[in-house]
Design brief:
Oligomer: homotrimer
CATH architecture of the largest domain in chain A: Alpha-Beta Barrel
Number of helices of chain A: 20
Largest sheet of chain A: 4 strands, parallel
Shape of chain A: globular
CATH superfamily of the largest domain in chain A: Metal-dependent hydrolases
CATH topology of the largest domain in chain A: TIM Barrel
Largest interface: A-B, 51 and 46 residues
Strand content of chain A: 5-15%
CATH class of the largest domain in chain A: Alpha Beta
Helix content of chain A: 40-55%
Number of strands of chain A: 11
Chain lengths: ~475, ~475, ~475
């Protein structure tokens, strides 16, 4: 017999009755606040076409979600069996019912993981499924979701409204035409979908396809990129375009938090080597470190909030990268150092309140040791929410535990869902709202804060902090 | 007046009544399952001789247990006073009643430590002691244990049966004749004591006595080790012998997680230098890093599970090492890096499901940052239980908290007791079964998993995971 | 309407009724024990003058407290607006009522931080304030505190007695005349204020003003410092003087835990270069690493306890350092390594029970990995309490969780308040006594220790451990 999805009303709260009561009281005040999603990877295309369809349940929930398929892969299921496209075009499973069956039969692998929690709520609240997927009920659940997806109520725009999303920020390459954002604006639909400027492809001179990205950047900006000066001008031009299209923020990702200030001459020398294909690994590292600082300088000029995600070793699995490309669930965190690494950047701009620099880490040992003390001191520095693997019940608890006492709540910025999986957005924000209510409830019960303070803090965490930090007001 | 040993039936469970109730319910289902002990350091000799005796209480519980005497030593009691043998043969305390008295008088030093917990249960359940050792009752408890040890019921084989151990794996050097395992097999006794192949003495070319170990390896394998090729053949021969004697796994220990693939030529060059006594420190590090990968290759060939313990700086205390030798409680953990270090190995074999690589760390900061993401992705990689200092109530809690959400339960392998202290085995497994039941109970109460899932998971953690991972089925 | 300060009698205890009951029971036994403050930064001058006044509320609670103003600064309030003196003498806010108003209006920034907890108790218990500072009540609270400060009851000596402080150790440069300590001794007042020898200014050859400090050291010791030998003699002379003035301990602070034994010749070569202004950065690092070991050697000779604070990157904010000087809330922790770094020191003196070396870290990842195993083994090594940013509810919980199982309680030394803010001392010790009672209560409820053991341990933690470790008996 299949098991029922539980989704208890009081889930994720501490069992202590008094804590649970206060947590629940706080949660009820924020549970239905509009969703502010200032950072994520939803494809804007789905909102440009009013009739966009998500395809099959496997296309919606398995094939594009590396959280899901990496766990199945870790237990010996080949990606081909899950319908993941190979770069060489070799055949992969195309029967989405079979893919779904494999997923359902292995659903136990997700027990206790955030993926389970998100899927559970998504299946139940979005699609009306009330059983845990398993061998027996797999096809029945497939049918149910498939039927939903075929109705107009499951078009992305309708879900956006149903999810009560106030604003959703996408992440877009510096060279994007933002055509879908434009189409959305011109369509008359009222949903607020804002672009975010992400120049990773052009500032990492060792990125695959960098030369082509630079050419495209030149084309899109109308500036012939022949030296460092024109490179910077092209970036500024694109930022200005993004800003005109509603962007509030930029984003970048680096493996290390190293920052360094190069002279224009040094920067130009490296760029010239890169343009001639002779740049070294050290060149790339120094240029990136410099561009982080330069990015902060531009943010001071144009007011775009600066997001920075540090510490992910991308595409760690060489075989999968070769066979399937990036984003195969093999981005693995590395040790990160901030205190010394950020000093060149903070020496320049850390005291400048015109800059809002939001930092994300995958190395939790830096929470209490480095990031909370830095964010609790520098006016320009804010700490982003727990990221990636740490966007979980325990990840959030550790973040509250290790960050808040030193950084103070007001040097943090609420929550990011950071997802490509659009229908999981309500579940992800719900987990945050529950865990933050529970954290605050615990503080009230232990006499650390009063209930009125907790009420204000709950609203800040669910709604106001991200709106202020990302200038979405 | 002496204090009573407490050993409450509900010990180590959360005080919340509902959590405790479910934890207890789960615990009762696993408490009496047979013990699977896939990794440890019990001396097989004690099972080869049906009349083997443990000696005095001090010989059983103090002299061989560096967990115990290192704590006494840290508070100023000299090892000589505890009867630890000196390498120079200088006299040490030989009155075991005096040693026991010192131990009992300082028993308060163990308050709140896992050693206390294990000793408490061992004293009570194995020897029927019901008081906390102290100055007054020391000799009385000594008598009680001594009397037990003199009876046939306290022969190792009888305890093995009483402890309900289904299988116990020892750890044996690559050059071992496995004579005791052979004697056990031939004795007709049914206890399952399996060897584990540990080549540390021969693959670390900077290990003390390496040359002698190589000679012995040559002798035991019947292969004259003159170059890298014959070295590898000799190892393969020994693995094959171990396998024929029932071994399911290998084990190795390194300070760093560095892996590297040398060409046969490079490997041979280093080995030649080692054989001529001219190898450098760098040679040793590279050769070890290479042999880790080579070990994985052999495991794919012969199916032996590969265990790898990383990050212990052995014999940190120079004075004690010189005076008493190794294993004096001075093996201290060091920072460990896995993400970059394992890449050469994982690039070769990480996707190969024929390999089962079980990793152990002493650096808990790698749990959530590196190991859980790696184990939650690579098909060949599994994460071993909390090791050494972390084999404790809080160590287990931190492991559950930091590993499970990302790795998923099914990429872990249950528990290892890892002990030389045979009579402590039931207590150690009991702590694991209690803490894992408590962890699962907490997940049920918080609505993360359902009760039926928790029941399955509890059995996996106590019994099935290690059996499958170590191919003990 | 302003909010009331709460200060519940049962604050900071776990909500579980049974845990709370036992925690409260334990707390009541230690709450009123005399305060032993073996390490801190209170200015001895305030006890030398019986009529010393703290000045205005802003001078007492804001201007000298970088915990307070760094948080306000992080949210965009300039230090000048808070009355912090600039080095260039440029005008800063001098209206203390305005400073206080800014502080009160931003009091919400401290929610959930230890600063809030200390201030809350200080305002309530010391000054009889019963409202949370805010925009409306700011001036009223200012008046209240100002009135208190003007009465004789608020002279430091009277507060010292009211706070029930048994002994308070200050921290004093090696070159100090200890004139205030002398004045206190000669005044006939019975308060026990002991100096601590801190040679940082003279052993870090790269410290600002090092040459002047060396000249002063020569002057104060009456020894002409021309080489390493006379340098050591001068230090020994000063230690002897401090000891004669009641000192029980020394203290030093370094960024790294590196230790190294230089030959006298090497040490002299470096010192000569330093005296001639030609020492390199490496010279400075090696000389410091050597002087740590030398410091341990001196402690063995003269019996002074050795404290060592590792891992703070001082004055990280270049702009603030230039404009305002040190101690502006910009000392940021860095990653620290102990296992390998301490080996040269421990090889020399780690087994020598005449040495008491108390280590402090800001890198919590070293608690369970390195420091607890080291302190749980080496007779000379003890672990200091959670320091700086970790001197908080969660910081203490993490310390208990990660240290105690491996180090054992008796290799720790109780609590340090480490504060310059004299009136916050009772609040800080109260937080420690509450959290340690709660930790012990949790152990009792979970069946890890018995209640009688917990009672002894509570007294050790609140009172006896520091007295023994710092030889204050």
């Amino acid at each position: 017999m299949s098991r029922k999805l539980v989704l208890r009303e009081d889930r994720f709260f501490d069992p202590d009755p008094r804590t649970k009561e206060i947590a629940m009281y706080l949660y009820k005040q924020v549970a239905n606040l509009p969703i502010v999603s200032p950072h994520g990877h939803v494809d804007p295309r789905m909102f440009a076409d009013p009739d966009y369809s998500f395809g099959s349940p496997a296309e919606l929930l398995i094939i594009p979600d590396h959280y899901v398929f990496r766990m199945l892969y870790s237990q010996g299921i080949r990606l081909e069996e899950l319908g993941i496209k190979r770069k060489d075009g070799a055949p992969v499973e195309s029967d989405h019912r079979k893919i779904w069956q494999r997923f359902a039969e292995n659903f136990h692998l997700f027990r206790g993981t955030p993926t389970y929690i998100w899927l559970e709520q998504e299946l139940h609240d979005v699609f009306g499924v009330d059983e845990v997927p398993d061998r027996e009920n797999a096809q029945e659940i497939f049918d149910r979701i498939q039927q939903c997806l075929e109705t107009p109520d499951y078009r992305p725009r309708r879900l956006f409204e149903r999810f009560n999303i106030e604003v959703l920020c996408t992440t877009d390459p510096a060279t994007s035409t933002l055509e879908y954002h434009k189409a959305i604006m011109e369509s008359g639909w009222q949903g607020k979908i804002l672009p975010t400027f992400r120049p990773d492809d052009v500032i990492h001179i060792d990125a695959p396809g960098w030369r082509e990205s630079i050419d495209l950047l030149g084309e899109r900006s109308g500036i012939d990129i022949t030296n460092y000066r024109s490179f910077v001008r092209a970036l500024e031009e694109r930022r200005s375009f993004f800003k005109s299209m509603g962007a509030r923020a930029t984003d970048m990702a680096t493996v290390s938090a190293h920052t360094e200030v190069l002279s224009d001459r040094e920067a130009d020398d490296i760029l010239q080597r890169a343009l001639h294909g002779t740049a070294s690994e050290e060149d790339a590292a120094r240029f990136t470190a410099h561009m982080v600082v330069e990015n902060a300088r531009m943010s001071i000029d144009d007011g775009l909030v600066m997001q920075w995600h540090v510490g992910s070793y991308r595409n760690h699995n060489a075989l999968l990268f070769e066979r399937f490309g990036p984003d195969m669930g093999a981005d693995i965190p590395v040790v990160t150092e901030f205190t010394r690494s950020l000093k060149p950047l903070l020496d320049r701009f850390g005291n400048d309140r015109r800059l809002t620099l939001i930092l994300f880490t995958l190395d939790e040992s830096t929470y209490a040791r480095e990031l909370a003390p830095l964010a609790g001191h520098y006016p320009a520095l804010f700490l982003g929410p727990p990221w990636w693997f740490h966007d979980s019940l325990n990840g959030m608890r550790r973040y509250f535990d290790q960050v808040m006492e030193t950084a103070g709540l007001y040097n943090t910025v609420g929550f990011n869902d950071d997802t490509r999986a659009f229908p999981s957005i309500p579940a992800r924000h719900d987990v945050w709202r529950r865990t933050s209510s529970n954290w605050l409830g615990g503080l009230v019960v232990c006499g650390v804060i009063g209930l009125e303070d907790a009420e204000e803090m709950a609203t800040e965490m669910a709604y106001s902090l991200p709106k202020r930090a990302y200038k979405l007001i």
